[in-house]
Amino acid sequence: MPLFSLYLCDMNTVILIHSNQPLVFDDFLTYMEIPKLMLDFISELPDSMHWYFHREGTSTTLFAINYNSQGTYEISIDNMAAYDDLKFFPYLVDSLAKFLNGEIDADNIYEELNEDWIEETIADEIASLKATLSILPHYFIAQPIDDLSYVSLDTLADFGVNLHSSTPRIYGYVQYLMRHHLLPYLNDWDEMEVPETDEEVEVDIPQHEAIGRVKSWQLDGSETYETYSKEDVEHLLALASEYKKGKNLHGVVLNDIGTIHQEGVGIPVDGESAIYWFTEAYQKGDKLYAPTNLGDLYRKGCGTISPCLKKAFEAYQLSIDPYAHYRIGQAYEEGWMGTCNMEQAMKWYRQAAEERHHLAIKRIQNLSLNNGL
Fold first, then answer.
1. What is the per-residue pLDDT across 81-131, written as a single tens digit (0 to 9) for each?
2. How many angstroms separate the CA atoms of 157 and 232, rounded?
3. Helix, strand or coil for residue 309?
4. Domains of the chain
């Protein structure tokens, strides 16, 4: 019998580990040496055991380990799990197998659950979400941290997202909603609406057609793109109009409105409007994206707005983004405010490097080499 088996069950990815060894979960936590791996609850039945747990500060859904009397452990992850949890999952499987069965060669699990698997898992989950919300009001998360929480079109609409949005855009905002406990939830399963029919329903899943994209960089320097559809732009502009009439919106949504003005996605480039929306986004709580985008706008200029390094420096100082911390270091090194201050430059470079930003790491390395350190 093979040690590992992988299969899909509803909205979960499940790995089977065959072992007759008992699992003492506290001992497994000690073996994992991950202090923020938290056990939520245990369910014990006559012929089975069930453990549910999450990573504090990272998880938006639960992991599950189920054991049956036939000597099989099922370890599962919700397909709508946080990206970092999806990356963590093969390590969790490998560790459980070694804990139960001793040292083994588990390279195959890392080959199976690789970056392609993560991308396909997210894509399949969002396709399922689109299909479900095309005919039903609720899309439930299989193993949520908040019981009976669900995604609805109305909830997505308040964040400028619709069924024509891109997979990363929908997934990213669902994760935001889950992480901030903003998803609606049912008090009882009886509230769930299910169509009264046994007939199969064919669904034409709305497709994303990009009319523009915005490039960004991850901490490691890899490039990613946020694409917008015509429906996204129309949706965001409608929210902008409602906001000016008094509708309350989250800062991240206002930042998106600023972005389409800054980049000219579906509309002309408008630096003044972008500044307005980034400023509003910051005031509404977006301390990550909005001040960083405002800093970039002033550093490079936008439309009729000329570059202004002083204003760029002031905007970056408002951000909690490691990238912004790197730019603050650059500002001190290059003297954006009039004079060079290498002591302050190194302070900010080191902070950004500790936050794992690739530009800061490279700059520190280059400065060390140039100074013979």
1. 999 999 999 999 999 999 998 866 556 788 889 999 999 999 999 999 999
2. 10
3. helix
4. 4-117 (3.30.160), 122-188 (no CATH), 231-370 (1.25.40.10)
- The rounded Cα 317 to chain-centroid distance in angstroms is 24
Q: Encoding tokens for residue 58?
A: 């990272």
- Exposure string of 295-322, with b = 16+ CB inside 10 Å and e = fewer, is bbbbbeebbebeeebebbbbbbebbebb
pTM of the model: 0.90
Beta-strand ranges (E) seen in the chain are: 4-9, 12-18, 37-45, 48-55, 63-68, 72-78, 139-140, 150-151, 210-217, 223-229
Mean pLDDT of the chain: 91
Tokens representing 237? 């502009």
DSSP string spanning 158-186? TTT--TTS-HHHHHHHHHHHHHTT-S-B-
Instruction: Find the angle CA(78)-CA(86)-CA(322) to the nearest 5 degrees.
Output: 130
In the block, which residue shows the tokens 């990213």?
172
Nearest alpha-carbon partner for 39 in 20, 21, 52: 52
pLDDT at 199: 62
Q: Label residues 210-225 b or e (16+ Cβ within 10 Å = b).
A: eebebeeeeeeeeeee
Q: What does the buried/exposed string (b/e) look like for 7-43 if buried means 16 or more CB atoms within 10 Å of the residue's CB?
A: eeeebbbbbbbbbeeebeeeebeeeeeeeebeeeeee
Contacts of 195 (CB under 8 A, 6+ apart): 135, 136, 201
Lowest mean pLDDT among 33-42, 239-248, 252-261, 353-362: 33-42
Q: What is the pLDDT of residues 328-346, one digit of tens each?
A: 999 999 999 999 999 999 9
255 has pLDDT over 80: yes
Coil, helix or strand at residue 285:
coil
Lookup: tokens for 17: 């580990």
Residue 188 pLDDT level (bands cut at 50, 70, 90): low
Q: Answer with the residue of higher pLDDT: 214 or 222.
A: 214
| 214 touches 292 (CB < 8 A) | no
CA distance 358 to 228: 27
Distance, in Å, from the CA atom of 225 to the CA atom of 213, rounded to the nearest integer, reads 6
